[in-house]
Structure formats: C-alpha cells, structure tokens
Amino acid sequence: MGRGRHSTARATSRSTPCPGHGGKTATFAVAPNRRQRGIFSTLSAYIVNPPRDGELVGRPSVGFAYVNLGHDMNLEALTITESPFKRLELGYGWDNLSLGDLPLALRNAGLVNYHEDQVQLHNFNARLQLLKEGEFDQNWIPAVTAGVHYK
Questions:
Q1: I want to staple 98 with a disulfide (CB 3.0 to 4.6 A). Which of 16, 54, 74, 109 is the partner?
Q2: What is the pLDDT of residue 117?
Q3: 122 plus 62 within the same structural domain
Q4: Is the pTM of this model over 0.85?
Q5: What is the 3-state secondary structure (H, E, C) of the chain?
Q6: Containing domain of residue 12, as a range?
Q7: What backbone torsions phi and psi does residue 25 show, to the nearest 5 degrees?
Q8: Which stretches of the chain drop beneath a pLDDT of 50?
Q9: 64 and 3 in a common domain
Q10: Contact by Cβ (8 Å): 47, 37
Q11: pLDDT of residue 9
C-alpha cells in the first residue's frame, strides 16, 4: 500500500472543549488525505448539563424555535431537557405546525378532507450514559449512550 498515490498515512485527531460539559473535550478524527473527507464527532454521547459536583440534579436546558413558512404557516418547537443524575437524561419536546390555508386548498382540490388547522407532536426522550469517556482509567474507552424516544 505504500507505493504510488496510495499511502499508509494515519488519521490525526484533535480535542476541542465542549461548551456546557465542564471543560471536557470532544475528539474529532480528521482524515489525512483527499479521498477520505469528513469529521466524526462524539458530542451526542454526552449528557446535557449533568449535575456538577455536589449537585443531585443538573441544570435544565430549554430551547425554542419559530419558523415562518409563509401562507399563514408557522412551525414552533419547544424542548426541555433535565439530567436528574450524572448518567440519566430526560427530555420533552413539543412541535406545533400551523397549516394556514393548506387544509382548505387540499379540500378544494378534492385530495383530502382535513379540517384541522394545525398538527402537534409530543416527544418524550430518555438517555442513559452506559460508559463515560475514559472510564476505568482507560483513555481509549469512548462515551457510549443509549436512548429511547416516544412520539
């Protein structure tokens, strides 16, 4: 493999501080040549705002988004996530899509007889961090998190 255009160069990695994770770092693997592009990130394996030392419950994380889609259609999303223990994360999300004049247009076209003017979606999430990064004093162990979602 060491001949011609192909080489046995190794990927390099960088550690970058993760905001809101107590100064912990995320590892990004960067491909060494032009053929392999992209970045692999482990940010989603971290628990959102875990309890700090001496705290039983972490600080809540709240998010809101609004998108004006035109034609009286809007999308709103509200999320709240809480970490009651260092390895457990519980979350709730609410999405509301205001359909504007879409139901009337669908009825007039004879496609669908839909009378609601909005659609709502409720999301319930739970994640458990099975392994912390570097657990058991082994630097090679990555953070591993498993989760379930109910909609």
A1: 74
A2: 87
A3: yes
A4: no
A5: CCCCCCCCCCCEEEEEECCCCCCCEEEEEECCCCCCCCEECCHHHCCCCCCCCCCCCCCCEEEEEEEEEECCEEEEEEEEEEEEECCEEEEEEEEEEECCCHHHHHHHCCCCCCCCCEEEEEEEEEEEEEECCCHHHCCCCCCEEEEEEEC
A6: 1-41
A7: -115, 155
A8: 1-21, 23, 25-34, 36-40, 42
A9: no
A10: no
A11: 39
